[in-house]
Every structure is written in structure tokens, then in C-alpha cells.
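URGENT: need a sanity check before tomorrow's submission.

F., can you look over the Ribose-5-phosphate isomerase A record below? I want to be sure the sequence and structure line up before it goes out.
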Amino acid sequence: MNMKKIAAEHAVQYIEDGMKVGLGTGSTAYWAIQKLGQRVQEGLSIQAVATSIASEKLALELGIPIIPFAELNGLNVTIDGADEVNPELHLIKGGGGALLREKIVAYHSEKLIIIADESKWVPTLGQFPLPVEIIPFAVEWTVQSLEQLGCKVQLRTEGEQIFITDNQNYIADCSFGTIPSPLKLHNDILSIPGIVDNGLFIGLADQVIIGHKDGSVEIMGRK
Ligand SMILES: O=C(CO)[C@H](O)[C@H](O)COP(=O)(O)O
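C-alpha cells as predicted:
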């Protein structure tokens, strides 16, 4: 049973004609974009923006209309994946390196629906290394400042090369083990110059749809 696909396809049921939709990034969002593409080919009329170059490419291949940001005044809904979700619906995101665009799009959405397989549901955030997007300038100093917050930092690589985000930045993966106060850590990280944003999404998710092994979905959320 493909738990990511089940959660994604459930979320896409909520998309209606005329909606402005944000498209997430990653292997779960992939299934949502596929399903949305199918519905567009069957006549659904939506306008969309994407959170990564990869998701935009996929959407265009499937015939989903991608609209310039300047032409849209916010979004009705965004469907995106997550690396960890806790019971307060705070998230760690950015495993795919798209956290900055994902956070911008989520912030401007009336509703953020998170889709995930059951392995992403955790009592406390932090087992998954927290992705932090940093600018390349003085990267060594920025990494030192992150380490002073009590984590082990790994600059993300792709093969032999440093991983470069869609925004031409780096990702520092920060292993904290556990994050008891996500909001405090979020603010502490953002106080370091050179950091663009981090993968803690606090109070942004409205609904979380978890796909289970037995084919069922579980829906948690505020709206
Ligand atoms: O935040 C993300 C990309 O930046 C993804 O949503 C997150 O990494 C989950 O990925 P997947 O759906 O492949 O498990």
C-alpha cells in the first residue's frame, strides 16, 4: 500500500473549480500533483503556483496552469509534504531542500494541508535533522553559530558537490535529537545573520492527512 499516494489523493479531493492552489515538493507532493493533473485533464479549472522548479516542471507537463505570483493575490490552499509532524501540527520540512519557497507559499495560503505517511508522525520534533537554508557567504561562521545552539551540522551535499537550493543557497542539516521548544529554536536560528530560513513550520499547518499501511487515512487539524 502506497501510504504517500493515499494521503495525497485524499487531499486532492478538497480542490474545487476556481481555486488558487500551492503545489508542494517531494515524493508525497508528487502524488498530489499527479492526481491534480488528472483532474485538470478531466476539466477541473484551477490556478497554481509551485514551491520548487521540479514541482513546477511536473505540473506543466501534466497541464496544470502555473500562474505568475504577481497575478495572484494569495492562495486558497496549499498541499505539501513534511519530514516530521508533531501533535501540535508543528512541522519539520525541507528534506527536499525547498523549505524557503514552501514556507513563503504556505504563509500566503488560507489553508495548508500536509500529506504524509505514518512514519512522519512523531511525539516530539527533532529526530529528523532540521534543514536550515543559509547563504554561501561566510558559511563557516554561520555553521559555527548554528552549532552553538547545540546541534551537529552537516552541510548538505549532492554527490561530490554542495547541494544548491533553487534560490542558490546552501542547506545545513542540523541534528538536535529532540526539539522541546520549536518556537524558541526557530527564533534563535533566525537571529543568526546569514540564515535565510529554517524548516520549522510553526502554526502554519491547518490540516494533516496521514496515510496508513492498511490503506486508511487519518485527518488531524484545525479547519
Ligand atoms: O519539505 C519537503 C521538501 O523540501 C518535503 O515536503 C519533505 O521533505 C517530505 O518529503 P517526502 O514527501 O518526499 O517524504
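My own read: The longest strand covers residues 109-117. The chain has two domains: 3-121+202-221, 130-196. If you see anything odd, call me.
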